[in-house]
Amino acid sequence: MPIVALRDVSKTFPGRGRTEVPLRALEGINLEIEAGDIYGIIGYSGAGKSTLVRLINALERPSSGSVVVNDRELAGVPERELRQTRLGIGMIFQQFNLFNSRTVWGNVEYPLQVAGVALAERNARISDLLKFVGLADKAGAYPNELSGGQKQRVGIARALATSPSILLADEATSALDPETTREVLALLTRVNEEFGTTIVVITHEMEVIRSIAHKVAVMDSGRIIERGSVFDVFSNPQTAAARRFVSTVVRAVPEPDELAVLRSRHPGTIVTVSFADGSASQSEVFLEFARQGVAFELIYGGINDIQGRTFGHLTLALRGDATAIAGALAIIRNTVTVTEVN
Question: pLDDT by residue (tens digit) across 119-147?
Fold first, then answer.
């Protein structure tokens, strides 16, 4: 059974005033997240990502459909009975949401106090978590004495305080610089691997998805328009929105304006050769061109590694006898995808 399951979920917010129409934030959402996954949910602002997260931690109720978390149907459960469910779900935020009046220790202690954990157990848990996130020496510091990355580490420690089975990360790296982002993502990967925590990553940054997620769902206008393994979505996006996201981190086929510039600089036949695990290697393709007497120049693209698997798109300018070029392309099409963009 999935640890999180949303089935035909919709969420509508009432309009304000007499003339305002209701806002349909989510429509027909079907999503299953397996225990132990790092599941990325990506979309632009207004796509419905944050509303979806608030359904998972029961801060919002669906207008229709079913939300099941840790084998419990949340729809219709009285508010007072949701406390235990929420204790099993940790949350980290873009703006950290720390208590400025509490020390690092006090921030991590807060959810344990709310949960009624005994003092000795609290102290042991906080000590272990601060060591885990690399902030044992900052226990007595206040948030305004910390860097952004340190604040987010406190946020992660606090979110893990009650040993949740699910951790929700809502744009958790958007306020951080690239180096600090990499450090925080590495820490989240450790959380997943060492504690077995299921992590749901909400983001508009495809680089975050590439760095840590196992699976991804692409949202647009309140709907999930594409989903699958990160490798499948990156290597072969099926929708325009997914292609836009992938293009921010993967150089694939040149856009028309880029192609016009490439044509002006590189004479010959221009083709894009797409590689993936199991297809011919680059060296085999290049060797076939050489055997046919075809000169080639790499003018666009690259090779990517996702979850230990490789794929890529290389755009080449080919020069030589037209018959030789056609013959070489006919041979390599048996093992790789070739697109003529000339």
Answer: 999 999 999 999 999 999 999 999 999 99
* Backbone phi and psi for residue 163, each to the nearest 5 degrees, phi listed first: 55, 55
What's the CA gap between 225 and 42, in Å, rounded? 11
Tell me the per-residue pLDDT of 3-51, one tens digit each, with 9 for 90 and over.
999 999 999 988 776 667 888 999 999 999 999 999 999 998 889 999 9
4-247: CATH topology is Rossmann fold (3.40.50)
DSSP secondary structure, 14-48, as one string: PPSTTTPPPEEEEEEEEEEE-TT-EEEEE--TTSS
Q: Name the least confident of 104-108, 301-305, 332-336.
A: 301-305
Q: What is the pTM of this model?
A: 0.86
Q: How many CB atoms lie within 10 A of CB 250?
A: 21
4-247 and 256-340 share one fold:
no
Q: CATH 3.20.20.100: does it fit domain 256-340?
A: no
CA angle 168, 172, 173 (to 5 degrees): 150
Q: Is there a contact between 209 and 185 (Cβ–Cβ < 8 Å)?
A: no
> How far is Cα 164 from Cα 88, in angstroms, rounded to an integer?
4
Both tokens assigned to 62: 């669906």
> CA Rg, the chain, in Å?
25
Contacts of 240 by beta carbon, 8 Å cutoff, 6+ apart: none
